[in-house]
Amino acid sequence: MSSFASDPGLNEVRDAAGHGTEVDVAVHLHDGTVRLSILWTQEILLNADDADQVAQALQRAAGQARKITAARRSDRSTEA
Predict the structure, then answer these.
(1) Distance of alpha carbon 12 from alpha carbon 9, whole angstroms
(2) What is the CB neighbour count within 10 angstroms for residue 57?
(3) I need a surface site. Which of 17, 28, 42, 51 has the fewest CB within 10 A?
(4) Predicted confidence band at 34 (pLDDT cuts at 50, 70, 90)?
(5) What is the pLDDT of residues 50-66, one digit of tens each?
């Protein structure tokens, strides 16, 4: 089982050039890091709507990451 949770809102985002390239935004559920992956190549060309979707996914991931790291800090301060 992966420790990363991918954003399902990006399932239909594909390379605008038609190469089948995909993008993935995921949050590590244990440490709150955000992973941005471009699958099958080193770059992806996005149309404006897909670029908005990726940006929104990154914002959602950042929000989740902040919650995870805040919870971790809170757990550490109660252990001390």
Answers:
(1) 8
(2) 22
(3) 42
(4) very high
(5) 999 999 999 999 999 99
**Parallel, antiparallel, or unpaired: how do β-strands 34-39 and 4-6 relate?**
unpaired
d(CA 62, CA 42): 23
Q: How far apart are CA 52 and CA 41, in angstroms?
A: 20
- What's this model's pTM, rounded to 2 decimal places? 0.84
Backbone torsion region of residue 20, taken as left when φ is above 0, otherwise alpha when ψ lies between -120 and 50, otherwise beta: left
**Cα dist. 58→43, 47, 48, 76 in Å?**
17, 17, 15, 27
